[in-house]
């Protein structure tokens, strides 16, 4: 049928005028989950148990399981809605049927029936296929290009898309964000998804323990992008300013500094400064440094995230000492 943006599909959902079949693809799991959830919200909450079916296709790893699973999917899609205008069938990990294994005659017959469902879906049912990476050379994907609305998730087209993406990402982290804060962050990062993800991850870390993120939090983490000096991050930790410390860490990494060099600087800070500034933080600080060093050496996580965690912990120790 067509390729649609997330914003366009949300408008269809709000208007209650959805297409028969959708394929949500892309690596942005948060975006896909949020959009699939909005489809389910088309049905009144009290009627969702009867009219919203969620199916996990990831376990259909053999011919027999594929046959049984596809049979259940088709039955769900052919069932009429109960006291509601529309029925929703949401299929997670749908790559299992877009690139299926035909290991038995029963599986082949079931997939043929699924193909017929895609060609002639029921008007009162909306089928939402949610997939990560898909083989676009398969017969089923080529069929979906003709029969489904394909939505590429994680594509930021404009300021509104960026703000929506930020709200979804923050919500997935268990928090809320003020509209002004989301707007300020989107304006700073623009439509660059990689930069948006970095800014929001840093903000979530900074606001850890809060229920709501405000404009002051966003400004603290995403202030003017000017590196003051090589020791600005250490100075911010000494002052107990996690937002500024995280911002300076980001600027240092973006300038090409090696994570090992930054870790060495933080090690000096704990050894040379903490005995006077935060005596109670020396022991935990050494343990945090050792853990981060080990994690970096064995590639146990993104170096940026590992260092951000360490910076927040050191700032917490410093701020705790100031309150004593």
Task: Give a description of the structure.
The structure is a single chain. This protein has 324 residues and is α/β, with parallel strands linked by helices. The protein is 59% helix and 10% strand. The strands form two sheets. It has a six-stranded parallel β-sheet with strand order 1-6-2-5-4-3, with helices on both faces. Helix 12 (232-238) packs antiparallel against helix 13 (242-254), helix 13 (242-254) runs antiparallel to helix 17 (303-323) and helix 16 runs antiparallel to helix 17 (303-323). Residues 224-228 have low confidence and may be disordered.
Task: Give the SSE layout.
Elements lengths: L1 E3 L1 H10 L5 E5 L3 H12 L7 H4 E5 L6 H16 L8 E6 L2 H4 L6 H15 L5 E6 L8 H9 L1 E4 L6 H14 L3 E2 L1 H11 L3 H14 L5 E2 L1 H7 L10 H7 L3 H13 L4 H14 L1 H4 L4 H16 L5 H21 L1
Helix pairs in contact: 4-6, 8-9, 8-10, 9-11, 10-17, 12-13, 13-17, 14-16, 14-17, 16-17
In order across it, which strands form the biggest sheet?
Answer: 1-6-2-5-4-3
Look up the CATH topology of the largest domain.
Rossmann fold
Structural class: alpha/beta
Using only C-alpha atoms, the radius of gyration works out to 25 Å
| Number of helices, counting only DSSP H or I runs of 4 residues or more | 17
Q: Assign the CATH superfamily of the largest domain.
A: P-loop containing nucleotide triphosphate hydrolases
Residue-averaged pLDDT, rounded?
85
Helix content: 55-70%
Total number of domains: 3
């Amino acid at each position: 049928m067509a390729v649609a943006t997330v914003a366009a599909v949300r408008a269809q959902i709000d208007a209650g005028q959805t297409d028969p079949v959708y394929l949500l693809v892309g690596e942005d799991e948060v975006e896909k989950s949020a959009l699939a959830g909005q489809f389910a919200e088309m049905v009144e909450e009290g009627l969702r148990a009867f009219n919203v079916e969620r199916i996990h296709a990831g376990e259909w790893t053999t011919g027999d399981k594929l046959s049984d699973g596809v049979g259940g999917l088709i039955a769900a899609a052919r069932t009429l809605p109960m006291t509601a205008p529309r029925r929703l069938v949401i299929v997670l990990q749908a790559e299992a049927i877009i690139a299926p294994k035909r290991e038995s005659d029963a599986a082949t017959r079931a997939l043929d029936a699924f193909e017929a469902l895609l060609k002639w879906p029921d008007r009162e049912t909306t089928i939402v296929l949610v997939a990560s990476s898909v083989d676009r050379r398969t017969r089923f994907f080529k069929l979906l290009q003709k029969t489904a609305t394909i939505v590429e998730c994680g594509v930021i087209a404009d300021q509104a898309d960026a703000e929506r993406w930020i709200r979804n990402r923050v919500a997935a982290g268990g928090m809320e964000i003020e509209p002004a804060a989301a707007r300020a962050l989107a304006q700073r990062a623009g439509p660059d998804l990689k930069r948006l993800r970095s800014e929001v991850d840093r903000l979530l870390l900074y606001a850890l323990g809060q229920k709501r993120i405000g404009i002051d939090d966003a400004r603290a983490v995403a202030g003017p992008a000017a590196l003051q000096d090589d020791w600005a991050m250490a100075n911010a930790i000494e002052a107990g300013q996690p937002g500024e410390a995280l911002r300076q860490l980001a600027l240092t990494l973006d300038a090409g500094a090696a994570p090992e060099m930054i870790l060495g600087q933080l090690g000096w800070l704990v050894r040379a400064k903490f005995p006077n500034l935060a005596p109670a933080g020396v022991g935990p600080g050494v343990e945090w440094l050792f853990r981060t060093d080990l994690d970096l050496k064995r590639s146990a996580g993104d170096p940026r995230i590992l260092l951000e965690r360490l910076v927040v912990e050191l700032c917490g120790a410093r701020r705790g000492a100031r309150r004593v």
